[in-house]
Amino acid sequence: MNTRRDNGSGKKDLGEVIVITSGKGGVGKTTTTASLGAALALRGQRVLVVDADIGLRNLDMMLGLENRIVFNVVDVAKKICKPAQAIIKSKKSNNLYLLPASQTDDKDVVDEAEVRYVLDQFRREFHYILVDSPAGIEQGFRNACAGADSAIVVTTPEVSAIRDADRVVGLLSSKGIEARLIINRIDFEMVRRGDMLSVRDVQDILGIEILGVVERDDQIISAANCGEPVVYNQKSKAGQAFTRIAARVCGEQIAIPSFDGGSLWSRITKKLGVNA
Asked: What is the pLDDT of residues 41-58, one digit of tens each?
């Protein structure tokens, strides 16, 4: 993943579009989008977060911007408004902006070409455009992937979530979209006891590069309820993790702790009679 730089001709390279997806709902895609966007903005990057979950928007609430919405992504796609009229600046950062989803339309109200058009309107203005994908692998997912340069797959260390993530990794690969992984809500004490899949287990199953590991942290809930991304809380372990993830997105080499215990995945596959 690369940041936008001056290419020497006085023009800026286009910003990078990153789709944040998972397949399974409830694993933390929207939290990741808001938190990573805020963390990148704190590093001086201009960031636009796009809610592609048409009909069920939540990203606006994560950022405390739900009362400031006038236009949305559908309005931009249908050219009802100018692109600049639809984006909303964060109350906490001059570098972070939101393009909200429509709450009254169906996911199929826009197509992939229209989503590419929307994203192209902002590529020259932002270093990063983070697209929050809806759950599932239907039209909403395909729309969210339209125009993406790369992907971040979010999963929790649970077999059902990992199975869905594996399906999404395959679909992204078929589209030529490189994916990296964030493991969310890991409990290292459970990993040590062998009661939860470890970082290594998850990486071995999915076979893609890990971008970051986010420890289970109740402060994420309070942050979401307050409409402030958890990265603004310097005492939050999750906030610290997203700060490190943002650094890696910007190209910094920061080691990822594994805290591996006994391999739960090996035990599961042995019980099922499968070679791990």
From this structure: 999 999 999 999 999 999
Distance (Å) of CA 76 to CA 50, 87, 109, 120, 256: 12, 10, 12, 11, 39
Rg (CA), the chain: 18
Q: Tell me the pLDDT tens digit for each residue of 100-116.
A: 999 999 888 999 999 99
Distance, in Å, from the CA atom of 264 to the CA atom of 191, rounded to the nearest integer, reads: 8
Which long-range contacts link 245-248 to residues 24+ away (Cβ below 8 Å)? 245/36, 245/39, 245/182, 245/211, 245/212, 245/214, 246/36, 246/39, 246/40, 246/42, 246/43, 247/43, 248/211, 248/212
* Domain annotation covers residue 245: yes
CA dist 84 and 122 (Å) reads 9
* Residue 246 belongs to domain with CATH number: 3.40.50.300
User: pLDDT tens digits for 110-133?
Assistant: 999 999 999 999 999 999 999 999
Q: Which domain holds residue 50?
A: 16-267
In a domain, 274, yes or no: no
Q: What is the pTM of this model?
A: 0.90
Report the domain count for the chain.
Answer: 1
d(CA 244, CA 222): 21
CA 182 vs. chain centroid, Å, equals 9
Question: Is residue 113 situated within a structural domain?
Answer: yes
